[in-house]
């Protein structure tokens, strides 16, 4: 690989050894029973098969209403918009059969008094996921050759890449949110409107808050994919060193555009295994950028490392509860 690897070989060997240990010895998974369970039993669903849009491809939307929402005296609810909606609730559609069990997590946080009453809007992805989630303002800072390399795997048909991230935000804000607010009893201001996702969905969540801080008051970013690319030639075998230059474009965009502290809450986390093992140095720089903008750890900013956590649905599900209660505390 050109330029060597970004991640030390010792860390990659450690991952391989841990993989073998878990394969032969096994690891306790407190959420394993959810993998074979039906969709979240608590609360109520309303699903819309192909939500129309002038900006992006129509896609399914799942709205989860928590227990108590239908009570006559129920208060208006906050709203959490989540990307990759097919992975949130149902083992039949979640990657590897491992849903995030979002309804369970929100219900438990609400019952514990750690989270305000909240509706979850699950926005399904499409084959154009990368084009919709990768923030265009970050990609456009790249020089032409590096841009081409970054987006090389971003079109499912192998054709020319077209960024759709701005259109995706228009869909969320101008087409989806007004209908959600009209149909359901919601608190409509930014203080009660959050957005969350993992990996590229984390970048999409951050982009939403940065672009429209008047709409979104909190962003939850799990395993944020700071390398900005899904090109396997760059990500494989510990990561090509050119990822530093690619990620720098995203960091430059964030340094210029992140809203100043005072009205927003940011949550970041990542593991240290496999793909997540690439994120630590970049996340450290993001933390410093946020502190420079006035964000304070434990007040309106949280950035967590989960040792031995890798890049998959089970890892995100296992730490979802604390992210939810941070974004929309009671």
TrEMBL record:
Pfam families: Esterase. The keyword Hydrolase applies. The keyword Hydrolase applies. Keywords: Hydrolase. GO terms for molecular function: hydrolase activity. InterPro entries: AB_hydrolase_fold, Esterase-like, Mycobacterial_A85_antigen. It comes from the Bacteria. This is Alpha/beta hydrolase-fold protein. It comes from Ideonella lacteola. The lineage of its organism: Bacteria, Pseudomonadati, Pseudomonadota, Betaproteobacteria, Burkholderiales.
């Amino acid at each position: 690989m050109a330029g060597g690897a970004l991640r030390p070989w010792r860390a990659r060997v450690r991952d391989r050894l841990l993989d073998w240990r878990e394969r032969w010895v096994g690891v306790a998974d407190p959420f394993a029973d959810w993998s074979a369970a039906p969709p979240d039993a608590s609360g109520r669903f309303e699903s819309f098969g192909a939500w129309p849009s002038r900006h992006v491809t129509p896609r399914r939307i799942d709205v989860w209403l928590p227990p108590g929402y239908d009570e006559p005296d129920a208060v208006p609810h906050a709203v959490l918009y989540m990307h990759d909606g097919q992975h949130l609730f149902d083992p039949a559609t979640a990657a590897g059969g491992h849903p995030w069990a979002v309804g369970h997590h929100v219900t438990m946080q609400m019952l514990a008094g750690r989270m305000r009453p909240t509706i979850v809007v699950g926005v399904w992805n499409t084959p154009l996921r990368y084009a919709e989630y990768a923030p265009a303002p970050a990609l456009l800072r790249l020089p032409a050759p590096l841009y081409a390399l970054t987006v090389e795997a971003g079109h499912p048909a192998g054709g020319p890449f077209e960024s759709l991230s701005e259109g995706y935000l228009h869909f969320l804000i101008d087409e989806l949110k007004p209908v959600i607010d009209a149909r359901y009893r919601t608190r409509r201001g930014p203080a009660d409107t959050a957005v969350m996702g993992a990996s590229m969905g984390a970048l999409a969540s951050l982009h939403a808050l940065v672009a429209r801080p008047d709409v979104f008051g909190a962003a939850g970013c799990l395993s944020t994919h700071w390398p900005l690319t899904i090109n396997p030639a760059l990500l494989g075998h510990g990561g090509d060193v050119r990822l530093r230059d690619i990620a720098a474009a995203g960091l430059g965009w964030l340094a210029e555009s992140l809203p100043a502290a005072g009205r927003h809450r940011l949550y970041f986390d990542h593991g240290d295994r496999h793909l997540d093992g690439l994120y630590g140095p970049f996340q450290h720089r993001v933390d410093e950028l946020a502190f420079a903008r006035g964000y304070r750890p434990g007040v309106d900013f949280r950035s967590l490392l989960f040792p031995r956590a890798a890049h998959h649905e089970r890892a995100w599900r296992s730490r979802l509860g604390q992210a939810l209660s941070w974004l929309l505390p009671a």
